[in-house]
Design a protein that fits this description.
It is a single chain. By secondary structure, the chain is of the alpha/beta class. It folds into 2 domains: 4-28 and 255-451, UDP-n-acetylglucosamine1-carboxyvinyl-transferase, Chain (Alpha-beta prism), CATH 3.65.10; 30-235, Enolpyruvate transferase domain (UDP-n-acetylglucosamine1-carboxyvinyl-transferase, Chain), CATH 3.65.10. Helix content is 29%, strand content 22%. The chain is built from 12 helices and 23 strands.
Length: 453
């Protein structure tokens, strides 16, 4: 397979001329890989993560952990990460510089990890765009628990410098409306505090990610499944951990990435046929809710013992849908990119917080759909997309955002001209390396297989 760096600056997407078929193996979950990496650092013995994601985001997390003194062995071919040498971490006598790129999970999790460290000075920064992304809610909450965090630029944003001496615990408020990663980061380090922590979430909670975090914390604290007590819809109590705060399983299996699954779940809906998403199940990841959206739009979705199977007959109607994506917003772009193929308007709500992610995803999606000839009504929190005839020979701008590249890559598989000629190109397709480095290799292999079937 080619490395993303070998992709051209502009990639024409060759449409499918025959229905897709087969089974695909998805990359591991980014959310689970980075959570498991963080929790493994709190353990006192080696932890092996199987099925782990190898991508830009997880590599940034791994490199940061190594800089902090942890051993992280990586075997990409086997999908294996192994964390050990936890006792040797946080020993540097000089300031440790950490770079998180554009990785929001790494940024929030490493901030919490360093704030909870017993000693040391840590300077964390990212790309210019990451330095604009929301951090204030987490910074304020960690400060309330006793952390010494200094913003080196604008208050509430990266870059930051942390002078660590542990966390004292107690009651704390956190505003995580702009990113649930901030609440998840706080929950995961709370057992390290000197006393129990009571967390009050201000402005609401995106439950799928909080539930995921609580579940993986329980897996890393065998026999203490009530480590996170949900007092109310916006209040959590986290007990003080022991020594160590987490007692690791020797291995932890990472599920396939449900966000990445949305693109290949949508592929049969675009080109016809059927595709099995191997080992994907309704489990820890809320983004599997996208399968229900596809079903309402007209796809057939079946759960099997080996994973989900999605199929679609081109003679069937494809319906516009009305969906609130607040709880699984990474997948709203997948539906929006497919909306030109649907038979009526598509209403997408609950996405205002995505304006502060890798790019302004709401504005970017509206702009690219309009360039493709679609009628789009945009508000702060919504998109209403009315399908119009697609305009060919458009190069979709990706804004350095992997989800634009992958979503519109699936739309480009539609045989608009009816003769298999490319009609849509993707700018900077290599940006998919953030979470799915071989996305376009896999897409092309499925097309070639379909063409000779």
């Amino acid at each position: 397979m080619s490395h993303p760096s070998t992709l051209p600056e502009c990639l024409p997407i060759t449409p499918f001329t025959r229905p897709v078929s087969g089974t695909i193996k998805l990359p591991g979950s980014k959310s689970l890989t980075n959570r498991a990496l963080l929790l493994a650092t709190f353990c006192d013995r080696p932890v092996a993560l199987t099925g782990a994601l190898f991508s830009n985001d997880t590599e940034l997390m791994v490199e940061a952990l190594r800089a902090l003194g942890f051993n992280v062995a990586a075997d990409e071919t086997a999908g294996l990460l192994r964390v050990d040498n936890q006792a040797a971490a946080f020993r540097s006598e000089t300031t440790v510089e950490l770079f998180v790129g554009l990785a929001g999970t790494a940024a929030r999790f490493l901030t919490a990890l360093c704030a909870a460290a017993p000693r040391g000075t840590y300077r964390i920064q990212g790309t210019p765009r990451m330095n604009e992304r929301p951090m204030k809610g987490l910074i304020d909450a960690l400060r309330a628990l006793g952390a010494d965090i200094r913003c080196l630029g604008a208050e509430g944003f990266f870059p930051i410098e942390i002078h660590a001496s542990g966390l004292r615990g107690g009651t704390v408020d956190i505003d995580a409306t702009e990113s649930s990663q901030m609440l998840s980061a706080l929950l995961m380090v709370a057992p390290l505090a000197d006393r129990p922590v009571e967390i009050h979430a201000i402005g609401g909670v995106r439950w799928p990610f909080v539930s995921m975090t609580a579940s993986i914390m329980a897996a890393f604290q065998p026999g203490a499944e009530d480590n996170v007590e949900r007092v109310s819809d916006t209040c959590f109590r986290v007990r003080k951990g022991g020594t160590p705060a987490y007692s690791a399983p020797s291995t932890y299996a990472i599920e396939p990435d449900a966000s990445a699954a949305s693109y290949y779940a949508a592929l049969p809906f675009v080109v016809g046929g059927r595709l099995r998403l191997e080992h994907l199940h309704t489990g820890l990841q809320g983004d599997t809710a996208f399968l229900d959206v596809l079903s309402r739009a007209g796809a057939t979705v079946n759960a099997t013992s080996g994973g989900f199977e999605v199929s679609y007959e081109k003679t069937h109607a494809r319906h516009g849908v009305d969906e609130n994506f607040n709880a699984f917003s990474d997948t709203f772009l997948t539906l929006a990119a497919l909306s030109p193929l649907l038979s009526g308007p598509t209403f997408i709500t609950g996405i205002g917080h995505t304006r502060r992610q890798e790019t302004d995803r709401v504005a970017g999606m509206a702009a690219e759909l309009r360039r493709l000839g679609q009628e789009v009504l945009e508000t702060e929190d919504t998109l209403v997309i009315t399908p119009r005839p697609l305009i060919p020979d458009v190069t979709v701008r990706t804004y350095h955002d992997h989800r634009f590249a992958m979503s519109f890559g699936i739309l480009g598989c539609h045989d608009l001209r009816g003769d298999g000629r490319p009609w849509l190109s993707i700018e900077n397709p290599a940006c998919c390396a953030k979470t799915f480095p071989h996305f376009f290799d896999l897409l092309e292999s499925l097309r070639r297989k379909a063409s000779v079937a």
